[in-house]
Amino acid sequence: MSRTQDFPRPGTRVTDRARAAMLRVDQAGEYGATRIYAGQLAVMGDRHPVSRVIAGMAHQEERHRQRFDAMLTERAVRPTALQPIWNVAGFALGAVTAAIGPKAAMACTAAIETEIDRHYTEQLVQLGTDDPELVAAITDFQAEEVEHRAAAIAHGAEQAIAYPLLSGAIRLGCRAAIALSKRI
Question: Which of 118, 120, 134 is nearest to 14 (CA)?
């Protein structure tokens, strides 16, 4: 199925199937974020000043996940079948970046939030005014994701070892997870 069939051009009505894919991938993304932060906190504990920042972001991601969980239930949309993989992969990504160091953990956040901001912007354009409840949730959560990226950069994300390579690899993985979670 082509991307155009999945997500219509702005100004056209979004199909129930496309809306279900949006919810599925958004819930998967928020779930993955909670697992990344869990992995980072498992390695870093409260030893680093950035741990408190990570814990705050984790709390917001959990709230996002809970809202998307509720929307999946309310709308009878199945979650991604890949959730067990995102559980392990997210925790591992968080743990590995934290083991590299606090700046690498922040680089992970900056990379992921860059992709999520782009992803949410695309969804908002596609939805237009078609689904006010979903638009409101995405708009609210996107603002917090942008704050997470800014916090990550302020806490040294761009100073991480091999930042361009690390960021590029994480962003590529995030784009792949988005594409897979829409369908599977």
Answer: 134
pTM: 0.86
Residue 135's CB is within 10 A of a number of other CB atoms, namely 15
Q: Left if phi > 0, otherwise alpha if psi is -120 to 50, otherwise beta: which for 89?
A: alpha
- The pLDDT assigned to 67 comes to 95
Across 82-90, average pLDDT: 92
Q: What secondary structure letter does DSSP report for 15?
A: P
Give residue limits of the domains in the chain.
9-183
CA distance 10 to 128: 7
Write down the residue that tokens 């082509």 correspond to. Answer: 2
Token pair of 145 as six digits: 């994701």
What number of other Cβ atoms are within 10 A of residue 139's Cβ? 13
State how far the Cα of 77 lies from the Cα of 125, in Å rounded to an integer. Answer: 22
CATH number of 9-183: 1.20.1260
How does residue 11 score in pLDDT terms, banded at 50, 70 and 90?
low
Buried b / exposed e along 24-34 (16+ C-beta atoms within 10 A): bbbbbbbbbbb
Answer whether residue 97 shows pLDDT above 70: yes
